[in-house]
Write a structure and sequence with these properties.
Distance between the termini: 198 Å
Strand content: 15-25%
CATH architecture of the largest domain: 3-Layer(aba) Sandwich
Largest sheet: 7 strands, antiparallel
Order of helices and strands: HEEHEEEEEEHEEEEHE
InterPro entries: Mog1/PsbP_a/b/a-sand
Number of strands: 13
CATH class of the largest domain: Alpha Beta
Number of helices: 4
Helix content: 10-25%
Number of domains: 2
Protein name: PsbP C-terminal domain-containing protein
Shape: rod-shaped
Strand order of the largest sheet: 6-7-8-12-11-10-9
Keywords: Membrane, Transmembrane, Transmembrane helix
CATH superfamily of the largest domain: Mog1/PsbP, alpha/beta/alpha sandwich
Length: about 325
């Protein structure tokens, strides 16, 4: 060992060709470089390399053990640890890793942690804003129901049905009585055309004259044989007297009326008449028969007369036919 150490010193510190010059290996080292632990009683150079407690990166492979009689050192290799004072190297060894990965690695972790914290904070802010927006939109989407009282509809007044006016019935014209063809008059008689203007008709003896009554209320028919043989048809007009009163009034106007009969009822032309008779003095003693009725508010009177001793004959021959053909028109 001493000889080998001397040879290295004399030879300028080289072992084998191509090996970097080294300082003289210490003969009696009192300790191993940091990171190495020699087994008890083991020769120098046979220590086992231990992992470096730090970043977890192991040292390079262990140096080959030293052989007896070996001159110089083994082939080039990476020797961990610090150099011995006075020893020179061609390029030197890289610095030993520092525990904790060094200042650069610590800075990297700080930056990563800060970035992660910022990202987490940003995510939390976004999450909070999203929750607030969701809550606000839900609150706005649900309107508060306000109970409103529905206004009762005002009932429309039911229109009263307009009564349909009944058609005014047209006045039914009163049919005029059909004018029957005038039947031929009885033999020896003729129809009184002028009598129609007074509201009646009758037949009178042919050859008898027609004239107005002395009071001007009717028509008088006079026999050509005697002026005391007459038939008078009077229409005094509207009256409020009864037929009995009309008969009594006519008889009362006769001069010296005697033998006045009670009033009786008879029918002439389909109408009821009241009648009475009396005697009165004219040129001779005459007999008179008075008939009265009220038809449609108008008074109608018939007076037939003749000398007392001729009355029954004149009645049968003329007066009966004249009364039988009387009709209201």
């Amino acid at each position: 060992m001493p000889a080998a150490g001397a040879g290295m010193a004399g030879a300028g510190g080289y072992g084998q060709p191509g090996q970097l010059p080294q300082a003289e290996f210490p003969a009696a080292a009192t300790g191993y470089p940091t990171g190495y632990q020699a087994p008890a009683g083991a020769p120098y150079g046979t220590g086992v390399q231990q992992p470096y407690p730090g970043a977890g990166t192991p040292y390079p492979p262990t140096m080959p053990p030293y052989q007896p009689g070996q001159t110089g050192f083994a082939g080039p290799g990476t020797y961990p640890g610090a150099g011995v004072p006075g020893q020179t190297y061609g390029g030197g060894f890289p610095p030993r890793p520092q525990p904790g990965g060094g200042p650069g690695q610590r800075n990297t972790w700080i930056v990563v942690t800060a970035v992660g914290a910022v990202v987490m904070l940003f995510l939390l802010i976004l999450l909070g804003a999203f929750v607030l927006m969701r809550g606000g939109s839900q609150t706005a989407a649900v309107p508060t129901a306000t109970a409103t009282t529905a206004a009762s509809p005002t009932p429309s007044p039911t229109p009263s049905p307009t009564p349909t006016p009944s058609p005014t019935p047209s006045p039914t014209p009163t049919p005029s009585p059909a004018v029957s063809p005038t039947p031929p008059p009885n033999p020896g008689f003729a129809w009184c055309d002028q009598c129609v203007n007074e509201g009646f008709t009758t037949q009178y003896p042919s050859g008898w004259s027609q004239s107005s009554t002395p009071d001007g209320t009717g028509i008088r028919f006079t026999s050509p044989a005697s002026s005391e043989v007459t038939a008078s048809f009077k229409v005094p007009g509207a009256t409020n007297q009864t037929p009995d009163q009309l008969v009594a009034n006519e008889i009362a106007q006769l001069p010296g009326a005697t033998n006045v009969s009670p009033t009786t009822t008879t029918t002439i032309g389909g109408t009821t008449w009241r009648a009475a008779s009396a005697d009165y003095q004219q040129q001779s003693q005459d007999h008179i028969q008075v008939y009265a009725t009220v038809y449609q508010g108008r008074a109608y009177l018939i007076e037939i007369q003749a000398p007392r001793d001729q009355f029954d004959q004149m009645n049968t021959q003329y007066f009966a036919t004249m009364l039988a053909t009387f009709q209201f028109v």
